[in-house]
Amino acid sequence: MSPITNTYKVALIGNPNSGKTSLFNSLTGLHQHVANFPGVTVDKKIAKYQIDKNLTIELIDFPGTYSLYPNSDDEKVVAEILSNPVNDDYPDSIIYVMDPFALKREMLLLSQLKDLDIPIIVVLTMKDLIEKRNLKIDIEKLEKIIGTKVIFFSNKAKTNLNEIREAIKELEKGKPKIPRSYILKDEEKKIVENFKDRLNFNSDYQALLQIHHSDWLRYQNKDLKKEIEKYKIENNFKSLSYRINETLDRYQLFSRDIDKISPKKHNKQDTITDKIDKVITNRVFGPIIFFVVMLLLFQAIFSWAELPMELLENGFSLLSGYIRDNFTNTWITGLLADGIIPGLAGVLVFIPQIFLLFLIIGILEEIGYMSRVVYMFDDLMKRFGMNGRSIIALISGGACAVPAIMSTRTINNWKERLITIMVTPLVSCSARIPVYTLLVVFAVPDKDIGIFNARGLALMGLYILGILMTLISSVVLKYIIKSKGRSYLMITLPEYKRPILKNIAIFVKEKVGAFVYVAGKIILIVSIILWFAASYGPSGAMNTAKADAIELSKDKHFNDAQMANLIASEQLEHSYIGILGKTIEPVIKPLGFDWKIGIALITSFAAREVFVGTLATIYSVGTTDDGMKVSEQMAKDVNIKTGEKTYNQAVAWSLLLFYVFALQCMSTIAVVRKETNSWKWPIIQFLYMGALAYLSSFAIYNILS
Amino acid sequence: MIFEIGKTYKIKGFNDDEIAGKLLTLGFLPETSFLFVRKSPFGGAYYFELNGTKIALRKEEAHAIVAEERF
Asked: What is the pLDDT of residues A637-655, one digit of tens each?
């Protein structure tokens, strides 16, 4: 039994780019874990550590925000929790993180926090940068202006991590008196007074926040909302303009003092950031540099990930083979060797690519490049109904739509975010590559066009096609989806800085983790279900199929391996999934697909690359064989009735287009359901992408055949 | 109002309350000066420098600022 311990909750709060997450990482290392704030899809990073026998500190990293008057869902979480003393995440104290280069702006949120009656300590970051530039900040004076303890923190030295931990302990022992900042005006006092019996609050300002945010706060009941709304109208309570006046008043309180101690740029000299931005965000060079960076990024993930992917693939098929050869053949070994292990392999094989992509995005983000990309392309993306921030999701979609769709949370406008979610799966992801490479062999002859290989060009064409359709669909959606509220760019462009390895490591861990836990779970479950559907069928039919296969093998003098393969393929044909494949044949026939392809289309709902594995089983080449063997078998496959090859150019192109467009991915459907909090959008997405796939496959098949 | 690249402006007020509320939280305050550094490649977003920090705004967001040129 563990002794009863108290948990003392400390919230890390600050502006975006204040160095907050970096400080959180320094304080907690890899001990942190990511959860969701209840009821919303906003990441909540928590770390717990025990200070002494009966005290545990719980550190929560809140989303970055500029004020308690929020813009995006992320920022709303901060206002919602801090305005509600009975919220589970309501902190016992706050560490407020400040970037010394933006003191004045950051004083605003601090001044709001001071009015909540929560103990605060301030951590000023980037000490190293201030010293490097020979600048000075008078910490004592700053403490006097703020009225709380200020710790000046250097990310390099880390000596004062203990100082911060000690300060938290001090806070826990006794509540230091925090001076209030803003005095409510008469009309604000009146409304608070009017509702004070019906609100739960520690300070008048907290009550005022509940009244200002009454239209969206989830913890307020409907009746109260109605009454507040009624009061606002009847008493001409102008929430928006009062908030503006409050903000201006707050700035008045500290601006002059803060101006005196803020570090100033020496004369008009350009900083390093100015010099870099002159080139990087240049109207001509900016987009060119971005384009080159993207080419390098995708070149890197494809070439560097190849070897580890191959190793993983071979490793798993060796494992499957080992289990099959060394254990008695029961349904458990079958499930393990042909269901679970290939399912796991299907998840893990993509980790190298996803890891590399997010490693590079993480580095670009950490040094400050990504916010420049958002700035440069916001207006272009706006024409497609999206936001500059959508670019990061679209790039991530090149690896996997699951973490990509999750990264749209930073987009504050619902319409822009929804469009980004709806079109991201059209960007060709890692799981399509095995399908493309297998099919392109049948679609394009192996010859050179100029200095390029024709098949290589076709692959690139498929990628470009995906991107083009992403843009076209977004334009269409722009006219269909109704807008809720205005959209904003308003983004601060941080100073360029050297990346901190730990921050990147944690970023990558989170993204890869999202893929493994969200997509991985589904891929695994679907693989197991599919294994059952492929291994079992109406009992009579399965046995007959086996007997037939054995007979045929004897006639043709097959060896044991060949016979086993034939049995597998015959049984698959008569399994539940085989029946399903035959059932859908009439629907897919116009696209040039037979029931065998139908089976592969169904199984690849787990993840697209399962298509390749299923064909391997159907063409009875055994799962241990590599892709080349599959394509050789496919090349031999002939339509019994017509005598024509199944995989002619028309069928191959038809399948390729189908995989470019169709939403063949359960994990994506699940994540879209979660992020949009409804079944409506994943269903619409599945249907519109399905329609695109069907129509384009139909068209190309009929043109080519 | 129309801003010119390379010029410094002093904020006098705003002509849109909703945008004003957000700009204030970013430090765009009356009587504060900012420098218009450059436009985005497609011209729809502006790169400003304000109190030593860099902030990008959409054209429409910037046009909510009422300002006068500082010489």
From this structure: 776 556 677 788 999 999 9
Kindly state which CATH superfamily the domain A6-173 is placed in: P-loop containing nucleotide triphosphate hydrolases (3.40.50.300)
Question: What are the residue ranges spanned by the domains of chain A?
Answer: 6-173, 186-261, 285-480, 506-704
> Which two three-digit tokens encode residue A630?
């599959």
Q: Which residues of B touch A (CB under 8 A)?
A: 17-27, 29-30, 37-45, 47, 51-59, 61
Query: For the purposes of burial, counting CB atoms within 10 Å of the CB of A86, is it exposed (0-12), middle (13-18) or buried (19 or more)?
Result: exposed
Contact yes or no for B56/B45 (Cβ under 8 A):
yes
Are A429 and A466 spatial neighbours (Cβ–Cβ below 8 Å)?
no
Name the class of domain B8-70: mainly beta
Residue of chain A nearest B43, judged by CA positions: A379
User: Which pLDDT score, from 0 to 100, does residue A551 have?
Assistant: 84
For residue A376, which residues of chain B lie inside 8 Å, CB to CB?
40-41, 45
Q: Does the distance separating the beta carbons of B27 and A281 come in below 8 Å? A: no
Low-confidence ranges of chain A (pLDDT < 70): 1-5, 157-159, 265-269, 617, 619-630, 639-643
Closest residue in chain B to residue A268, using alpha carbons only: B52
Whether A244 and B21 lie within 8 Å, measured CB to CB: yes
Tell me what pLDDT residue A159 has: 67
pLDDT digits (tens, 9 = 90+) for A82-96: 999 999 999 999 999
Judged by CB atoms closer than 8 Å, whether chains meet at B58 and A488 is answered as yes
For residues A619 and A634, what is the distance between their CA atoms, to the nearest angstrom?
7
Instruction: Enter the ipTM.
Output: 0.97
